[in-house]
Design a protein that fits this description.
The protein has 197 residues and is mainly alpha-helical. It has a single domain (7-172), classed as Orthogonal Bundle (Transferase(Phosphotransferase), domain 1), CATH 1.10.510. The protein contains six helices and two strands. It has helices at residues 45-48, 57-72, 82-93, 123-126, 132-141, 152-155, and strands at 10-12, 18-20. The chain has a two-stranded antiparallel ribbon. The two termini are 26 Å apart. One of its GO terms (cellular component) is nucleus.
């Protein structure tokens, strides 16, 4: 499991090849540890409720959040803190019932804070410019029970990726021009705060 999927950890080559970066938090699925995903906007509901045992579903949720951000042109769940993050999720997906998410009441932090009941907001309203096939795929990633989220291998075969407009061939993509060393201002002051932790 990667456990820290977010837009900053997705690298796209000039030829359109997507690569994952920053495997510092990656773990084998058999090893369970508290998630230290630094950016809460991509944390799954089970992690927000304090799950100590989890699976690849946390990465699938993050993929859904990233996909939703591409469709929405901004983060879907921009929580200011962990409680607000959970509130953001509940306010869009709606308050889950025990039928929707039977495992929720077994999570360590479930029922520590009571949230008002929310009805779900249709993703068509949140991402009005998205195609129906994009919305259908998004809905399969962003579901409460981890085991109900679409698997990555299945998602790659989703009709969304075979609907018009079709993806451009990598040879058709515009290639960004690289700056030569001569174009950099070598006399510019260096911002040392970028290197301090």
């Amino acid at each position: 499991m990667h456990r820290d999927l977010k837009p900053a950890n997705l690298l796209i080559s000039p030829t359109g090849i997507l690569k994952l970066a920053d495997f510092g938090l990656a773990k084998r699925p058999a090893i369970f540890a508290p998630s230290r995903n630094k950016l809460r906007w991509y944390r799954s509901p089970e992690l927000l409720y304090g799950a100590r045992k989890y699976d690849f579903g946390v990465d699938l949720w993050a993929i859904g959040c990233i996909f939703g951000e591409l469709l929405n042109h901004s983060p879907l769940f921009p929580g200011q803190n962990d409680i607000d993050q959970l509130y953001c999720v509940l306010s869009i997906l709606g308050t889950p019932s025990s039928e929707q998410w039977p495992e929720m009441d077994t999570l360590p932090d479930y029922n520590k804070i009571q949230f008002p009941h929310h009805a779900s907001v249709p993703f068509e309203k949140i991402c009005p410019d998205a195609s129906p096939s994009a919305i259908a795929l998004l809905k399969r990633f962003l579901v409460y029970p981890s085991d109900k989220r679409i698997h990555a291998s299945e998602a790659l075969l989703d009709p969304y990726f075979f609907s018009k407009p079709l993806p451009a061939h990598h040879l058709e993509l515009p290639i960004p021009k690289c700056q030569s060393r001569e174009q950099f201002d070598t006399d510019a002051p260096v911002d040392l705060s970028l290197f301090l932790y």
